[in-house]
Amino acid sequence: MSSSTDVRPARTGAAGGAGAPLVEVRGLTVAFGERDVLRGVDLTVDDGELVAVLGASGCGKSTLLRVLAGLEPRAARVVAEEVRVPWDAGRRDVAWMPQHDALLPWRRALGNVVLGGEVRGLPRRERREAATTLLARFGLGGSSRAWPHELSGGMRQRVAVARTVLAGRRLLLLDEPFGALDALTRRSTGAWLDVERRTGGLGPTRAVVLVTHDVEEALTLADRIVVLGGSPARVSAVVNVAELGEGSARRTVLAAL
Ligand SMILES: Nc1ncnc2c1ncn2[C@@H]1O[C@H](COP(=O)(O)OP(=O)(O)OP(=O)(O)O)[C@@H](O)[C@H]1O
């Protein structure tokens, strides 16, 4: 299969400029072979926002996130009028958490979270302290010395979220971060993320894009919900949860799915 990419992510002052969106995607089409998966997708994420991307399984949510992370699959043909993501000193200022947790098996839970601090360039002691605090907040304080294979799927996922948060990038891309969690843990981890985000606890992170299947999770956590639908997928609705209120937002989302 041929691979070509026509996207040239802009190094953009606009990413930090007053009033300009942190992320701006216009007219994004992604194809695998002859098949368009995404067609003409527009997406903006403002500074300070959490945007949820919601859609049926296989519609292209992960593919969209990978394009934002600059990790478009080799097999893909990616064409867009515009893809702007934040940059910092010449590198993309983005942390991406894939659907699978991708923990390093040779590092304990704490060591895996510490890795986020290494990526960020925090001094050794500071990154260990920050990782320990994060693990405790995620209810994993007692498991910091456990190896990944000793953790449940949900615990592993929380370690991976903590690692991504500690990377301290301006834009956080989370692909189904709570997918393997049971309903209770899912709610409390989501609530934690919400509180930290609103109180500045995510450090340098300014905005979050969250991919999810879960309508209620999107309604609870997101400022705006972008619904992808159809085949190839397009944006079928952009729902401003704060403006509409949860009830009306839920009806609009369900109608667009
Ligand atoms: N590397 C690839 N080569 C060929 N097809 C691919 C590749 N990656 C993804 N696809 C196809 O693109 C479509 C979208 O996949 P993607 O993983 O983005 O969907 P998704 O909405 O995230 O799904 P899910 O919610 O189930 O994770 C699927 O039909 C998938 O088979």
From TrEMBL:
Gene3D superfamilies: P-loop containing nucleotide triphosphate hydrolases (3.40.50.300)
Domain annotation ABC transporter: ranges: 23-255
Highest rank taxon of the organism: Bacteria
PANTHER family listed in its UniProt record: ABC TRANSPORTER ATP-BINDING PROTEIN, TAURINE IMPORT ATP-BINDING PROTEIN-RELATED
Keywords: ATP-binding, Nucleotide-binding, Transport
Short name of one Pfam family: ABC_tran
Protein name per the record: ATP-binding cassette domain-containing protein
